[in-house]
Design brief:
Oligomer: single chain
Number of strands: 0
Structural class: mainly alpha
Radius of gyration: 28 Å
Largest sheet: none
Number of helices: 20
Shape: elongated
Order of helices and strands: HHHHHHHHHHHHHHHHHHHH
């Protein structure tokens, strides 16, 4: 059926055709340019060449004005968002500045005489797996000695920076090829701000922030997120047609590698970073096998980073020792305690991970030092139930990937992958610690932000949106 304009539209067309292009009018009335041209012909209206040029100039000026206004709004929203995250983080942890030393703080700081030598720490900064973390403690000791306030200020600063990285990661992710045309992309500001605010204020983060020695966890997360952010920025720059050697791309790519390198020397949990980067490439950049040879070379430096943690452990165990002693020490490093077998530890972690999820959803009865039961058999009721729940969650993540709900799928897989180092088959003396969910919680806050958005949209459509008025026959 041929589209026609209403009398009101025809009247408006007569008044504005000299100032608006056919495309603008068509967009305004949700029709096409041909309909506008036929209406003009019907009314006997024509544009002179001068009028046509004037329309084009006006349209271009309006477009430039809209771009400037939108850019201004974007900057204003970004500043308000950053300010909100910083203020909330400072308020939440303002009462922790004088919290005392606890547990591993004595081994890491108060009784660690190596921290007294700042130059020595700098000279050996990459000689151990956690040397970057120890160097920051050496800097703290140099300026603050054993005054806890300085240590807490640094920990809070790192935590707030991580929340800002979470905000930035969501904003960039929703600009990737796989997400830019999705429904979620239209609500990027809300999703990013909600994720940042939840991350910075969630009670589960308390241990990683206020327990001074757990700076290793928050600092490793800092470099982890920064590396991923810079990688994403580099990829988006490259996809926009910039050459590999363009200044912006080279800066982002090289600093992403540097941040990954520093992460690997901060804590062992960052071993999963190359896998997350590959997963991100597959989920959001290009899921096809097209040009995988070139993309593999692009990702190769990150893949090679996997050798840093095991090679550092091997170097520390080597020297003039017999090969048997070296193998024994390496075995000790990948099994902190012989009191728990790998199988029992894995079974126990099924229950522990469910406990982490419960704490993320309902942060009640938190504990600094859990007395957690060891699971011995898979088919014990709570252990088997936990295993089936986690398996179902993993299957849902795979299903959502193929249903194009990629951000939700990625968030679930992020939780499992980033938790795998400390919750798999490497026995650790304390089977559960809340700070271990600090990095995995990034996936959780993304899920909660999406849930809040979807719930809000559903509520608005159901209760706030006016139903269409039925026309009387």
């Amino acid at each position: 059926m041929e589209k026609r304009l209403s009398k009101k539209q025809m009247k408006h067309l007569r008044e504005s055709y000299q100032f608006k292009s056919d495309e603008e009018l068509a967009k305004e009335w949700q029709t096409d340019s041909d309909t506008i041209q036929k209406a003009l012909k019907t009314m006997g209206l024509r544009r002179t060449k001068a009028e046509q040029k004037q329309v084009v100039r006006i349209a271009e000026a309006d477009a430039r004005r809209e771009i400037r206004v939108e850019a201004g709004r974007e900057w204003l929203w970004t500043l308000l968002s950053v300010f909100s995250i910083i203020i909330l983080g400072a308020i939440v942890y303002s009462n922790t500045l004088n919290a005392s030393w606890h547990f591993d703080d004595s081994v890491v700081v108060t009784e660690n005489w190596g921290l007294r030598d700042l130059r020595g720490n700098f000279n050996t900064i990459f000689s151990a797996n956690r040397s970057v973390g120890f160097f920051t403690f050496a800097l703290n000791y140099y300026f603050n000695k054993l005054n806890v306030t300085g240590y807490h200020v640094v920990n809070i600063f790192i935590h707030i920076a991580n929340a800002l990285f979470v905000y930035s990661l969501i904003m960039l992710t929703l600009k990737t090829p796989a997400m830019v045309k999705s429904r979620l992309a239209n609500h990027a500001r809300f999703l990013a701000l909600a994720s940042g605010l939840i991350f910075v204020s969630h009670p589960i983060q308390t241990q990683a922030v206020t327990y001074i020695a757990q700076r290793f966890t928050s600092l490793a997360t800092f470099f982890y997120l920064l590396s991923l952010l810079l990688f994403v920025k580099a990829r988006l720059t490259f996809l926009q047609g910039k050459s590999f050697f363009s200044p912006l791309h080279c800066i982002c790519y090289c600093f992403s590698l540097l941040s990954a390198f520093l992460a690997m020397h901060t804590k062992e949990i960052t071993f999963t970073l190359p896998f997350i980067i590959i997963l991100y490439e597959l989920f959001f950049i290009d899921s096809t096998l097209k040009s995988w040879g070139k993309r593999f070379l692009y990702l190769l430096p990150f893949i090679l980073m996997l050798a840093i943690i095991p090679s550092t452990a091997l170097k520390l165990s080597a020297g003039d020792k017999p090969i048997g002693d070296i193998i024994g020490e390496i075995r000790e490093q990948v099994q902190e305690t012989p009191l728990i077998s790998r199988g029992d530890y894995l079974l126990t972690q099924f229950n522990v991970i469910v406990t982490y999820i419960r704490l993320l959803l309902l942060p009640m009865n938190q504990n600094l030092d859990y007395d957690y039961p060891i699971a011995r058999k898979l088919f014990q009721f709570p252990t088997f139930l936990s295993f089936m729940f986690l398996l179902a969650l993993f299957i849902v993540a795979i299903y959502l990937f193929f249903k194009k709900r990629r951000l939700i799928s990625f968030a679930i897989l992020w939780f499992f992958i980033t938790l795998s180092v400390e919750s798999s088959i490497i026995p650790i003396r304390d089977v559960i610690y809340e700070h271990r969910v600090y990095l995995p919680s990034v996936g959780f806050v993304i899920l909660i932000a999406i849930f809040l958005h979807e719930s809000g949209e559903s509520f608005r459509q159901r209760f706030l949106q006016k139903p269409p008025v039925e026309k009387k026959q």
